[in-house]
Write a structure and sequence with these properties.
The protein is of the alpha/beta class. The protein is about 65% helix and about 10% strand. It has 3 domains: about 220 residues, no CATH class; about 170 residues, Helix Hairpins (Orthogonal Bundle), CATH 1.10.287; about 200 residues, 3-Layer(aba) Sandwich (Rossmann fold), CATH 3.40.50. The longest helix is centred in the middle third of the chain and has 91 residues.
Length: about 675
């Protein structure tokens, strides 16, 4: 931080301190008033005692019927809602009514007394009166019957009771603090404990009531489920009787059916293979039925032992016939016999081939019928298996319904017995952990804390109000503000002139009539600053003006002229306020002729200048008030007059109109060597 920044910070802090000093009585007034009010109220307010009873609220089971498959609950969300519900029950009007009735609080002095009129009581009384008045205006009038009055009275007691009750859960725990405020410390403890006790009793009553309702509902459901179970058992029994399923074992029956189907399927495949084999052989036989030689060459024929035997005999006989034919003739008995045997063998072979052909056809037809029989048996077995499956499905449906109904019935019976037992057991999930004890120290008012807080708030409020008033005040008040906002040097300030009533002289001539006064010394200080400011560059013509009227510019002009003249300087005071001139009146001089007469060419300077009590102080009055002041002041005659004044006098002081009112001061400022701006402290805006 450089020297310039340090200086600015020092100035700012000094400004704050100056505001505090300036507005010190505002700060002191706020401080004293607030501390006094709070102190009086703290000592007048009747002490209030607070008694606290701590209660533990355990979790409850969130299921009405403990059957996981039937009912499922989000326990975490249920517990959160459960505790919120319990807190609201603790604040309920019904619970408050029970406590009031049990302790007969409507007869107690606590609820029927008139407390001392403290600040809070006054505010509450005023608020109640206003609300009651508005309600009586807006609401139609009702005939206040005895019942209506009694209800209103009860409601008033309940409202007063709940207004003193405070329910505060302990964070991250299952504990709740039940606090009650009262003027009587013993009553505060008694009410807090009674509130907790009745809350526990009410919770037990709610449980008993819920158990009764649950038992009633369970009995009704048991009756319904029992009827349903009996109907389902009867339906199962009838179905078994109708389908001859009294002693059947579906698992064993399924095994038998599967085995039978496998056997039939295997036999069918074998029969089908055999039928195809026989069919192919039969078709081949049919194809060559008109070719005996081809039939004889068929494997089934060739492989026949009898055919083989007959063919062997045939070949042998044929061989014998060939051999004998070389020795005998065709008619030889042996040759005839062999031909007869050959013919007989051929006939046997042909006969046997026909038998084999018929056997092949028979075997084919038997194989085909056997295949068809097995296929039919397989289809019949499949139908029986499907029928058995359908029976089993329906049987299982009926059996499952019986089992479900029986399970539900047994569960409801068990729950009903548990509920019946629970109803007679006074078990509560709520208990008092720490009973309320009689407090020895009042909860409020805390006089020391209240007074200390009032001191802090009063001081803060006073300082804040001081700065707020300073913020609203946009006037120039200090020399620093003059230099900061106007960017011009500060020449000095003049205090308020206070003259005794019996003093004969004009207070505007204080520098002349009271040269030893403090005010006169202030003007001499201003004179000194003016002389120092003109030492390097001579400023003979000085314009004295202000932002607005009645700021003391004429007062300053005259007294500055007096102090300069007392120093031996030749001074002329010119009244350039051509609209509302005052100088001639203050100095008791003639108004005519004057400045306007010179500018109009009607008189010369020498005939217009008037003497005063001081030899070196001369005055040029305004003269005749013209219709065009601005034109006269900006004329060449005015410039010529200024030149003459510079030659004849050391200083010429021009008293001009305010800057904000007319343009005269602006015109003269361009003609003068310097301008003295008069500011009325605390009134001239920035």
């Amino acid at each position: 931080m450089d020297e310039k920044d340090s200086f600015l910070e020092e100035v700012h802090l000094r400004d704050y301190f100056r505001v505090i000093l300036k507005r010190k009585w505002t700060i002191i007034a706020c401080f004293v008033i607030l501390v006094t009010i709070v102190t009086i109220d703290s000592f007048r307010t009747e002490p209030v005692y607070k008694a606290t009873c701590q209660v533990l609220i355990e979790r409850e089971n969130p299921k009405v019927v403990p059957i996981q498959e039937v009912l499922s609950v989000d326990a975490r969300g249920w517990y959160r809602d459960y505790y919120k519900t319990q807190y609201e029950i603790l604040r309920s009007q019904e619970l408050a009514k029970r406590v009031i009735k049990r302790l007969a609080l409507y007869n107690s002095e606590e609820f029927n007394r008139k407390p001392k009129m403290g600040l809070g009581t006054i505010i509450a009384t005023v608020r109640y009166t206003i609300i009651k008045a508005i309600s009586s205006i807006l609401s139609p009038k009702k005939e206040k019957t005895k019942v209506y009055h009694q209800r209103s009275l009860i409601q008033a007691y309940v409202g007063a009771y709940l207004g003193r009750l405070n329910i505060q859960p302990v964070r991250e725990s299952r504990l709740v603090n039940i606090s009650f405020y009262a003027y009587d410390p013993q009553l505060a403890a008694k009410v807090a404990n009674t509130h907790a006790q009745i809350y526990i009793e009410q919770n037990l009553e709610r449980k008993f009531s819920a158990s009764k309702e649950a038992l009633k509902w369970l009995n009704k459901r048991i009756k319904e489920v029992k009827e349903k179970l009996e109907k389902s058992e009867q339906a199962l029994r009838k179905y078994k009787q109708a389908h001859d399923l009294v002693s059947i074992d579906f698992a064993e029956s399924h095994n038998i059916r599967v085995q039978r189907l496998n056997e039939l399927n295997t036999a069918l495949m074998e029969a089908k293979t055999k039928r195809i084999e026989k069919e192919n052989l039969y078709r081949e036989l049919k194809r060559i039925s008109d070719q005996p030689e081809m039939i004889e060459s068929m494997p089934a024929v060739v492989a026949n032992p009898l055919i083989q035997q007959l063919k062997a005999e045939y070949i042998k006989t044929k061989t014998d016939y060939s051999k004998l034919s070389q020795s005998y003739g065709p008619e030889h008995p042996k040759m005839i016999r062999l031909r007869s045997e050959i013919k007989e063998l051929k006939a046997k072979i042909a006969s046997e081939v026909k038998k084999i052909a018929r056997s092949i056809e028979t075997e084919y037809r038997v194989a085909k019928k056997q295949e068809e029989a097995l296929s039919k048996a397989l289809e019949e077995e499949k139908k029986k298996a499907l029928a058995l499956n359908e029976k089993e499905i329906q049987y299982n449906v009926l059996k499952r319904e019986v089992e479900i109904n029986r399970t539900l019935y047994e569960s409801l019976l068990k729950r009903a017995k548990e509920t019946d037992i629970t109803e007679n057991l006074p078990v509560s999930n709520i208990s008092i952990v720490d009973p309320a004890s009689v407090p020895n120290v009042p909860f409020k008012p805390r006089r020391g804390r209240n007074i200390l807080l009032a001191m802090v708030v009063g001081l803060t409020l006073g300082i804040g109000l001081a700065f707020f008033l300073e913020y609203l005040d946009d006037t120039i008040k200090t020399p620093e503000e003059v230099e900061r906002y106007l960017k011009i040097p500060f020449l000095g300030y003049v205090g308020k002139v206070i003259i005794a009533k019996d003093n004969p002289y004009n207070p505007d001539l204080v520098a002349l009539k009271e040269p030893k006064s403090h005010i006169a010394e202030m003007f001499r200080n201003i004179r000194t600053n003016v002389l120092f400011s003109t030492s390097n560059f001579p400023r003979k013509v000085l314009l004295v003006t202000s932002a607005a009227k009645e700021e003391g510019k004429t007062f300053l002009t005259i007294n500055l002229g007096i102090t300069l003249a007392q120093m031996g300087k030749r001074v002329v005071v010119v009244d350039t306020d051509l609209r509302k001139p005052k100088i001639h009146h203050i100095l008791n001089l003639k108004k005519h002729p004057g400045l306007t007469d010179i500018l109009a060419g009607n008189d010369v300077l020498e005939s217009v200048i008037q003497d005063t009590e001081l030899e070196n102080l001369k005055v040029i009055p305004c003269g005749t008030i013209p219709p065009n002041p601005a034109e006269l002041l900006s004329s060449e005659a005015m410039k010529s007059l200024i030149d003459k004044l510079k030659e004849q006098f050391d200083f010429a002081l021009f008293d001009s109109p305010p800057v904000m009112s007319v343009t005269d001061a602006t015109i003269l400022a361009n003609l003068a060597d310097g301008v003295i701006m008069v500011i009325k402290g605390g009134e001239t805006p920035k």
